[in-house]
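#struct-pred
JK: can someone run the complex with glycinamide ribonucleotide? inputs below
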Amino acid sequence: MNIAILASGKGSNAKAIIDKINAGEIPGVSVAGIISDKPGAPVLEIAESCGIAHRYIDPQHRGARFSPESVREYIDAIRELDADLVVLAGFMRILPPEFVDAFPQAIINLHPSLLPAYKGKDAIRRAFEAGEKMCGCSVHYVNNELDGGEIIAQTAIEILPGYDLRSLEEKVHAAEHVLLPKVIKDIAEKRVKKNSPLKVEAYKGRTLSCYRTENSANYFARIRTPENAMEAFSFAAEHDLNPFVLGGGSNVFFRNSKIKSFILKNELPQEIRHLGGDRFEVSSSVKMAALLKFLYGQKRDAFYYLASAPCEIGGAIAMNAGSGPAEGKSVSDFIESVKYVKGMELVEKGKNDLGFSYRHSLFSDAEDVFIISAVFRFPEKAFAENPIEQRLQWARCNQDLSAPNCGSLCGKYDAKLMRIARFIFRPFPAGLSAKKLNWALNKSPNPVWLAMLFGTIRALHKICFRRLKFEVKTVD
Ligand code: GAR
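RT: done, structure tokens with the ligand placed:
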């Protein structure tokens, strides 16, 4: 885990972190850089002497805030450091929402008081002068409220009768030098529960549907914890909205550019955990390509026929993605159990209770279900050839790359009618692939062309009394 430290002053806490990392006490963590809002801050000298990248960025504000330009400069500098965690170690400025939102759940602050008491400046002096019997230090997640985010850990210190302000400050600082490195270690080892209240926002862009059409939604939320999924389902019920899980196992097409549904995007941490033997727990957010690459490296069998599918594991489980009716292989062949949120409950069920059949499961079309993870059994296997390469080769030959490829359209269709539809749509920016009748191609950001293509296919089948089963889920 890479951390970026922001500090304004002496830097004794930054030094404590660096010393503990160098002593091997925080394995897997490194300080990518130190940034200060004070040009001559001693913390920058500490960085220099320890060989750590450092820089001063002018906040362009005389008080405790930033100018809008400098906020962007800070954000860019932290991104350049590729930091997973931003640590405020004596950084005496109030971060604006744009800053906090740029690193969701990834900024922590050290404060010299037992929060929520004594927020703001001079906390130790104020506690001492108020005649408090206890004081201490806190590390908390940063939100948009001054010293107000969720508290991760605290150390309490008793103010004994003989103490003066100086000796108390020394005690608090000594406690901070232990607490902050410990919290960083706990976060790196994933022993800290992330504070991530659900945020519902508006969305505008082209990345919602695989059809890459321009859309805007009033209700869009990123699901980062199982609790977020529960909050989302309760929000949907309260506001009478239809929740729709992106990547939930079907090609999605938003017919209207103003989407009325509540779109849930899977942003759970992408984790693959080896549980021992041939058992692996895989988060639903893990990309198919990443999982297969990992398994091939481990010499284990899996659903390699999906190597070219740009999907996430959750979607593949929901639709129980298969290798073709003739071969009869499905993702569920490897599943032991699935953990998912249904409404307000976290449920775990074994494979036999999940209604798996070819390209179908209990999760297909369900609107109040969010898959969290699954336990798979991937047995060891010796490979004569790399199955990922083989599959990618197949995809290169069988897919039409002349325009952005949207995936398959129908489970059942009449080939003759599809050929007619392809002919009709030749001059237009949406159409059917020259290689595969069942694949849609799209060159237009405007959903209207694809809507007309789907409508034409449907109308042709209706007029000719032919069976048609769309695989595309259309959502308003
Ligand atoms: C620390 O006591 C820290 O708690 C405080 O600044 C000091 C920095 O010391 N932070 C705040 O008051 C934030 N509101 P250092 O420069 O020696 O690490």
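RT: quick notes.
The pocket of glycinamide ribonucleotide is lined by residues 7, 9-13, 89-90, 110-112, 137, 173, 176 (CB under 6 Å).
Residues 272-377 form a domain with the Uridine Diphospho-n-acetylenolpyruvylglucosamine Reductase; domain 3 fold (CATH 3.30.465.10).
JK: thanks, will look after standup
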